[in-house]
Amino acid sequence: MLKQVPGGYRLSVHATAAARRDHVGGCHDQALRVSVTAAPDKGKANRAIRKALARALGIKQSQMQLVAGETHRRKQFMITDAPAELLSRVAELGSID
Strands, DSSP E only, in 1-97? Predict the structure, then answer.
């Protein structure tokens, strides 16, 4: 789900666009589950996913960058300047369903 790489951390995300509500929590195939109400149109859902993740992880959106999966459910985000509690926060979110 969260892997340390040079320059920060890489977070695997299983995304669901056009959901009934925005929600971050749970695990799907070793990836953090993120649902957003935004439609997958012209990057709207990707922006909403980034915003929801930043809020849930307690980091700024500028600390996250989508590095893989722009048009797929399975996405990879690079997180830089991560706070010390990032690992525990991701683990906590992964256990919420």
Answer: 2-5, 8-16, 23-27, 32-35, 64-68, 74-79
